[in-house]
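Components:
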Amino acid sequence: MIEISGFTALYIFMLSAFTGYEVISRVPVILHTPMMSGSNFIHGIVLVGAIVVMGSAQTGLEQAIGFIAVALAAGNAVGGYVATVRMLEMFNPKDKKGEA
Amino acid sequence: MDIFIQVVYFIAAILFILGLKKMSSPVTATGGIVWAGIGMVAASLVAFFEPGVFSHTSNVVLIVLAISVGSAIAYITAKRVQMTDMPQMIAIYNGMGGGAAAAIAAVELVKLSSGHNVEGGHTLSATAQVLAVIGALIGAVSFSGSAIAFAKLQGLMKKTIRLPMHMMINLALFSLTLVAGAIIGFGDSPSIQLVLLFFAMALVFGVLFTTPIGGADMPVVISLFNAFTGLAVAFEGFVLGNAAMIIAGTVVGSAGTLLTQLMAKAMNRPISNILFASFGSDGGDAAEEDIEGSMKEVQGVDAAIMMAYAEKVIIVPGYGMAVAQAQHKVSELTKLLEARGVKVMFAIHPVAGRMPGHMNVLLAEAGIDYDKILDLDEVNPEFPTADVALVIGANDVVNPVARTNPDSPIYGMPILDADRAKNCIVIKRGKGSGFSGIENHLFYADNTRMLYGDGQKAVGELISGIKEL
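Structure:
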């Protein structure tokens, strides 16, 4: 881990918030649902935090909660990825021939 | 090693943002999710090399086991689910992320209460302690709230449950949760009982917050919870000193907030109205008014003839098409009509279906080119020259009351001008009004004919009607 002081974090928050706003403001309506699913996948990064926390768990209770954290986070990441890919495949002209 | 870990996190953060950006165009979208996926795998792998993780072998085994269990369940469900059920799956995966963020906070707070050192020698700073609690609250609400949203859309929970004095109970519960959170967040060493009580109250609040909201408003709520989870992840990222989590979480938090606003705006309702008031009680008196004319029924064969000899047909799909899984039939109908030289286009209202873009996904699944799919501003000028507007399972988004009656709760909402087409055929399961409970004047108009039946069956009738010509 790195030391992130309060104000550095605040700057990261601010710049990231603008980034998210800008990136999504240009999305056509047609892609809103896949985009929502995609952003849902991206907060699956919580898996990294879950791994770190679980790794340093010491008591049985900590391990139990950590286990839940990792399992849920993995579900978020994998489910979000597969759902997004399936939706985006629909927009891929090459894949349409198979369905006809 | 630490430098290497930080570099990978840094690259992952870049990949997430670039991936999201690529996802914003249909041409590059598939590549976008792959980029983000590479970032995710890389970040997850290096997380194992964070200080402390490999020092307890049993923990590493448990981590691998938990990842396998969570991934397997999510992979199988995500692969098997029907496209029409995607919105509730997004809700449940999002809830899992929120739950994970809350659980991370729970571990940190449990460590704090048992006096263990946190994070390999560090204790939580005062700021981190407060943010851990806030992230825990948001994550827990997102977790239980998303579960309710899933249950509602999946049809496991049909009724909108409202307790007596629901708002007061919510407010009281939320205040109590905040008090408990404040004691934990600002205290030295919170008791384990208080931590458990705090989480229990936050989870119950998520449930009570979501149950009174109607099924039609769920997309907005899911989008909001998506933003919630993002924020919760960002806060826990600060607690763990992980910049990738802060960046990814905040980006999703703000993007999700914007998306929520866009959806609420398309429905012409302030977000507060969706979250804290029910549509039905709003529109009660407006539904009472007199309507001129009557609903005129049409048979599938006659409707088929109208469409077959038209020059231009605009199809307006709605949630009814999704429920009836009629998109493939609609695609077949489109091909038949085009073979006869009829110009066919699709009109998509921003809030048609269960999520913005839901209809586009379904039509794309059925193999309809996306240049035929037009949004509100593009398609409305086309209606006056269209011979037939075919409305399949859409209701409020074509209700002309939104233009004409200032007393109506949907007044001012941008609608598709299906009523301005020369003829309008409405496929509808029964005579009832839509989700909002508002009578639709379009159904009573002189140029409107009602084709009753399930979307799939009705479109099937149209297809066989055209084939017989």
